[in-house]
Design a protein that fits this description.
The protein is α+β, with helices and mostly antiparallel strands. It folds into two domains: about 180 residues, Chloramphenicol acetyltransferase-like domain (Chloramphenicol Acetyltransferase, 2-Layer Sandwich); about 180 residues, Chloramphenicol acetyltransferase-like domain (Chloramphenicol Acetyltransferase, 2-Layer Sandwich). The chain is globular, with a radius of gyration of 22 Å. The N and C termini lie far apart (about 50 Å). About 10% of the residues have low confidence.
Length: about 400
Amino acid sequence: MRDRAWVLSPIDWLFCAADSRPSNVALWFDGPVDHSVLQQALTALGDAVPVIRSTLWLPEAGSAARPALVPLASPLPVSRVRCAAPPGPELELLALIEPVRTVPGEPLVRLCHVAGARRSVLLVSFAHVLGDAAACFELLVALCALASGRQPGRFELDRGVFDGLFAQAPPHPRLPEALGALVQVGLRTEHRAAPVVPGDVVGVQRTVFERATLRAQRVAGEQATGRRVSQFGLMAGHLWAERAQRWVAQGAGEQPVGLACPVDLRRLLPELGPRYFGNALRAAVVRAPAAQVVAAAPHERAARIMDAVAAIDRDSLTLDYQVMNAVYAASGMAAVSQMRIAGHDSVLVSDVSFAPTGVLRLGPRRCERLSFLNLYAHSAAVVPDGAGYAVVRARLAAEVA
């Protein structure tokens, strides 16, 4: 290992596999952006947050060493694509992304500047081993600050904080049970993605929630139960019911359907700090037969989701930590990397889509919207290892021809 390194936390280990999928984000700006300013801002960001200019380091099999991020030899460039017409829809933008891969020696962040005369788009591919969605968003805020001549706040880069929190805890009483089943609370062995069929590839799925409908559901739920009803729970429950309805329509109402809601541990563990840069999301998972999900009232689905979120505490996190350490010690990184938050028919929902884009400005240019560009095949199986990008490019080429 090189002299300077960031030793990864057990949560980071989940994303060390070569087929770990990146987050791809598109930021739409309301005018042309100076490419040289963007490149200078990225260089300054690499100086301010050096971990983004790193690559994965993996110990040899059987070694007691832990995976780490080590400095990357080359700088992080910003590629540029010029387009006379305004940038197209999200599916076309996917064709321009060169996704990062979680492979030793390769960068963990890539940027592409789609330069138009009236609108610009910044495409960002961000490896999950580097950090979660909250870290990615904060990084974008810092990049925009530097491009606008402002200094960003300092990030907390020490990932050993999880060891400090949980390493000295006594063995959890449920540890033997969890290891025996190879399942931990909120984490499940992932089913491999099915082969990609071009017709099944979807770039972005948008769901519009009417405020009046949400308000009516919240009022009805509060009148029925006397409890506050979470708006996020209502929206997440709606997506859960949408997925379940597909099975009910096929006469498979007994099919279990899951929902995974990432919970930001920065809010739960003050020791992390609000600007902890790494992975600090823990999945609250609910699962029920499709017919039950569809039949439940909106406030009942919301209550079940929010109860699962509330169940995440230091005790369950201690169990998570001990399970991952035990699996790593017994079977290595390959086994740990199989433990993911999504099952083969789970829908993943997060409130990061409601991030305040108003803080994202590149000089005088305002961010109009933020889109997450990820590829899904079949139900919830995410296209692995970059294969989906080739499918999208081929599909677009066929449409042009």
